[in-house]
Amino acid sequence: MLSDENEALCGRDQAIAGLRFVLEPTEVLEVLQTGGLASAQAVRLDYLRYKPARRCIGLFNIDWCDSHKNLPTILVATAMTKDSWEKFRETRAAKAIEQGAILVPEKRLALEWFPNDHGLKNAAKVMSLSSRPKVLRRILQVEQPDAIELNTLAYKPARRHVASGVSQGKILFTLKTYTQRGYVDADWRIRLAMESGLSNGQVLGSSSHYSSIATSWIDGRTLAQWMLSPHCSMATLAKVGYALADWHSRGQQIVSRMPATGNQEADTTSLLELADDIGVLAPALAIRAKLLAQQLSAALSELPQANDLVHGDFYAKQVILDPSTEQVRFIDFDQLRLGDRYEDIANFVAKNYWQVIHEGLDEQKCAGANQQFLEGYASYFGPLDNFRLRLYVSIAILRCAPHAFRRALPDWTHHIERLLSLAEKWLNSNSPNHHHFPTPTARCLDAFLDLAQINTTWTNESSEIASPLNASTVTAAKLVRHKPQRRLLVEYTVQLPGAINSSLRVLGKARLSKGIDVRTPQLHRMLLSYDWKDSELRIPHVYGLLPCLSMWLQEYVAVEPIFPNRPLTDHIDVREAHARVGRAIADFHLAQVTIDRSYGVSEELKKLQELFADLSRARPELSDRLHDVEHHCQRLAASLPKSQMVPIHRDFYFDQVLVSGKHVYLLDLDLAAMGPAELDVGNYLAHLDEYAMRQPHSATSCHKLAEAFLSGYIARSSSVCMPAIATWRHLSLARHIALSARITGRSHTTLPLLDSMSCDARLAQASLDSHLVLH
Description:
The protein is an alpha+beta fold. The protein has 27 helices and 26 strands. The protein has a 6-stranded antiparallel beta sheet with strand order 16-21-22-19-18-17, with helices on both faces. A 5-stranded antiparallel beta sheet has the order 1-2-3-5-4. It has a 5-stranded antiparallel beta sheet with strand order 6-7-8-10-9. A hairpin with a 3-residue loop joins strand 1 (40-51) and strand 2. Helix 23 (623-638) packs across helix 27 (750-774), helix 24 (677-694) runs antiparallel to helix 25 (699-716) and helix 24 packs across helix 26 (722-742).
């Protein structure tokens, strides 16, 4: 008999005639017994996949009497609409009957036995006793495939099948069979994880023909099983958190090899669709689900895009504990992608809540496990970003909400509401599970500025600091720059060991929303080893890394500022300083070094398009003018000559250099790439143009400084293309239109910048029109 909530669902969706049948296992048992399979004793519904007004698929496990134990135990029931049933009858029904399927026409229902799966055709070839040896021989190249038995571990109809390969009682490997598209998506991810050392296993073989991948078996029990045992130690959860943080840190090494799949707009869309699905299942919760999804989407859109390597499906069942040493190992890398590392953290926390509902994990143990896991993770990277944590945990819990229906739990609407309430609590409360996480700013600044904490971090075993700095004591910490949720710059005073009154100033650069930046220090080291000969150009030294704070340390340089409105009372020739900067960046462009990424006009135009699109949404009244400027920039870019690819800074202007005595220091190389030299030169000049517009009293000074910089550059550079510099100057200035609306204190320049660029665009169009008329 259907429960009240399933009865109500069937009443709302009458297009699927067999929906009632799929939702009630006793109906399936009756059909089997009356259809000649009287030995069927019990039926259990394990999994549902439901598309309202389209189809519902149920995965059932069948218990047979002892004399029929050799019969298939997995049955897939598909309830269809009228149209899909007619299509099934025309294309697949005959083949399904031949394979032993039971059809119930009056209910538009097909009952098919695994491994016969139309959407996962290779599963039948892999599991069939007759074809299995041939398949295994092709995938694994084993000599005696007949001795290998395959046992099903997991199965999702028309998606994937997972089996263990066993010989003489010993498990040898895991075999995953996918759809063809699923195989293409998974194969390179699994190989990348294993080849780069991010997995303890290895690929033993694969076959695109059979869409199957065999990987080495990781012995042990899952963390989920271990958590359900009465003797589990919470300290192990801290170890798992630390191991995940270490995995994220090591994952940064292969980020450049990953396709850019992170898309917050797609994530936002999926949340809203998820809310709609919850509304279909439980109409009484529709408004709450939609409101929560909208809140989460809005918060998600405000976050800076992260570029971390993430597992993609990290939770307790993906963690294997060695039975003797309890060493932590991770499995299942077929959803490896770029994203935000907080997604993995949050999914682990949320799935533990789901384990309370689905598998009876003790609630108090769940709370303790989550607390220990988070503290273990924080012990590696430093304090967690409270807002980011709450946001992603709320999202992950919301994604778990429909599982109560998919797993056919009794009273599934109650469980959906329970998870919905928990997601709301995480989003709207600073301590939803009695976790004492302070606000992001306060916690982060304490970790970076409190002398006791920073000295503890300084000597942490994960810290990598050059000698003798590694044995020093931090005596002062001063915040230089802070962008909440993004990055900060701290100046430390360090007392060197064994020396009285001998101190050193060090700059610490941290990323708050990502893992540590290891790429920029590596680039610094490469440039430090380069022979600059007679050049004034210098690169600050790298002193070390503090991974648990996502921070790296660099040399502090005593500076002579060269910003345009520097007071005239100071004893420095600012024009000469800008000429020296021009010579220094020319030397950088001439350096015979290669940076591991490139940037050119196509990337610049794409960035400009994104910035203008954002500004158009915020200021619709400017849309037409922005479109004209963008079109003008595209015309200018099309006229650029082909340039030699040289090392470029990519964000080069007067704040990115320090003039100190005889040297010019180049800063902030995190965007450095191979590209056209004119980009840096045009960008420097455009920043002076923008500064003149922002500070009109400095306009004359900015003009003279631009002349000095350009003269210095031309004097040192081996080749100068003035038209290309002029084009890049325009492109950079166009970018400032959008940036002015984002940066505090610059909004008054948005319209003047737009007026200037619009005027250029109109003049260029008029010139083009005149040319067309004459010809």
